């Protein structure tokens, strides 16, 4: 077993990027971390696509923040995605606030932050920028493109947009499009941010303020949807937020009464400390817009006909944000085209966040899948 062998990159791209919206980015940079070693034939690369508030820091401990990567339980020496055998690339999406070009970056044309002028980006735009990243490393074909939630949408888009460049698509806790309910949650969160008096139509950097109130509410809304009802009940029940020995009586006020309120407020505060409001707006809109079936009359099977990769689709029984029936839609569309697909539905209590957590059966499936891929590479 070897070390994680982490390398960090900030890669500049000067070829203009035409976006799906019709706008264009003249130049941009992508923040990247890699783990493991690219083999001589450059056939063992796995691209990790991140979800809403994650970044390129996927595995290992960040020397600056001291925080573990968001999929550190999945990726590393001896882990399900074993970096002794695979070269793993974590990339930070355009529009993010974690290093890649985004609203907080300086617009070279104005020498001020892009702010509200940063163009809307889509899942398809991200995939094109990631294809250029593959070119940078000289990778003609990924062994796998993998992601959970929004990351799973990117993996699916990779299979559609660059079918000849993906051997395996790993789509976890995801869907081929958002439901009306999911779009509604995103709209409420965006409204909370945009109605914050400190938002200043997205140009709050110039006012040296942050729309913290809106960000807090947006995160609280989002966080509820990431957990299952059973998980919340087990964690908090109807417990009151009281010091040991205090009376367990209501105080008849709007201050924090229940443990679950305290938890949500804590999550909201923490989120407002590190996340950018404009990035939240952009990424949730990218989620809303993703719908590969739209150009095929709503027929997902027709949209996935071009795919050439083998696929692994995983869902979790208590995930109501991206419920298993949304994963089964993808599986059916792949089978309609007689594509190779493996599907696993994990009976797990943790809701949508289960894709980030340790689960022996979930990790066992991925370990076995990557072991087979490793034998195919040998």
Radius of gyration: 21 Å
β-strand number: 14
Biggest sheet details: 8 strands, mixed
For the largest sheet, list the strands in their spatial order. Answer: 1-4-8-5-11-12-13-14
* Helix content class: 25-40%
Structural classification: alpha/beta
Q: Whole-Å distance between the termini? A: 18 Å
Kindly report the average pLDDT value. 96
The general outline is: globular
Q: Provide the β-strand percentage band.
A: 15-25%
Helix tally? 10
Low-confidence stretches: none
Element-by-element helix/strand order: EEEEEEEEEEHEHEHHHHHHEHEH
Strands, helices and their partners?
Layout (H helix, E strand, L loop, with lengths): L5 E8 L3 E2 L5 E2 L2 E8 L9 E5 L25 E2 L4 E2 L4 E5 L14 E2 L4 E2 L9 H14 L7 E5 L1 H12 L6 E5 L7 H15 L17 H15 L2 H7 L23 H16 L2 H13 L10 H4 L6 E7 L7 H13 L4 E6 L13 H18 L1
Parallel strand pairs: 5-8, 5-11, 6-7, 11-12, 12-13, 13-14
Antiparallel strand pairs: 1-4, 2-3, 4-8, 9-10
Textual characterization of the structure:
The radius of gyration is 21 Å and the shape is globular. It is an alpha/beta fold and 378 residues long. The two termini are 18 Å apart. The strands form four sheets. Strands 1-4-8-5-11-12-13-14 form an eight-stranded mixed β-sheet, sandwiched between helices. Strands 2-3 form a two-stranded antiparallel ribbon. A two-stranded parallel sheet has the order 6-7. The protein is built from ten helices and 14 strands.
């Amino acid at each position: 077993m070897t070390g994680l062998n982490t390398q960090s990159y900030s890669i500049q791209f000067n070829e203009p990027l035409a976006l799906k919206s019709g706008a264009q980015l003249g130049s941009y940079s992508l923040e990247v971390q890699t783990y493991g070693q690219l083999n001589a034939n450059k056939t063992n690369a796995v691209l990790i696509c991140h979800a809403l508030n994650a970044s390129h820091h996927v595995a290992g401990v960040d020397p600056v923040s001291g925080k573990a990567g968001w999929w550190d339980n999945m990726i590393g020496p001896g882990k399900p995605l074993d970096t002794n055998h695979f070269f793993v690339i974590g990339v930070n999406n355009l529009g993010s606030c974690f290093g890649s070009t985004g609203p907080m970056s300086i617009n070279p044309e104005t020498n001020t932050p892009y702010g509200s002028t940063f163009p809307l980006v889509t899942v398809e735009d991200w995939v094109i920028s990631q294809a250029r990243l593959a070119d940078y490393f000289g990778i003609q074909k990924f062994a796998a493109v993998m992601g959970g939630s929004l990351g799973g949408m990117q993996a699916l888009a990779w299979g559609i947009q660059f079918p000849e460049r993906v051997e395996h698509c790993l789509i976890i806790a995801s869907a081929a499009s958002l439901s009306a309910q999911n779009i509604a949650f995103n709209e409420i969160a965006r409204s909370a941010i945009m109605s914050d008096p400190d938002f200043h139509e997205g140009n709050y950097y110039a006012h040296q303020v942050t729309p913290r109130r809106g960000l807090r509410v947006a995160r609280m809304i989002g966080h509820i949807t990431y957990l299952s009802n059973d998980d919340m009940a087990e964690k908090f029940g109807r417990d009151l937020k009281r010091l040991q020995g205090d009376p367990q009586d209501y105080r008849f006020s709007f201050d924090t009464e229940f443990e679950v309120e305290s938890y949500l407020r804590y999550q909201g505060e923490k989120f407002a400390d590190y996340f950018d409001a404009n990035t939240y707006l952009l990424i949730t809109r990218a989620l809303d817009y993703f719908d590969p079936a739209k150009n095929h009359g709503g027929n997902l099977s027709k949209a996935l006909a071009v795919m050439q990769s083998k696929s692994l689709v995983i869902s979790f029984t208590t995930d109501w944000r991206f419920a298993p029936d949304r994963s089964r839609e993808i599986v059916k569309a792949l089978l309609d085209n007689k594509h190779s697909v493996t599907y696993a539905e994990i009976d797990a209590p943790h809701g949508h966040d289960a894709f980030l957590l340790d689960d022996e059966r979930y990790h066992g499936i991925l370990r076995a899948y990557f072991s087979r891929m490793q034998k195919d590479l040998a």
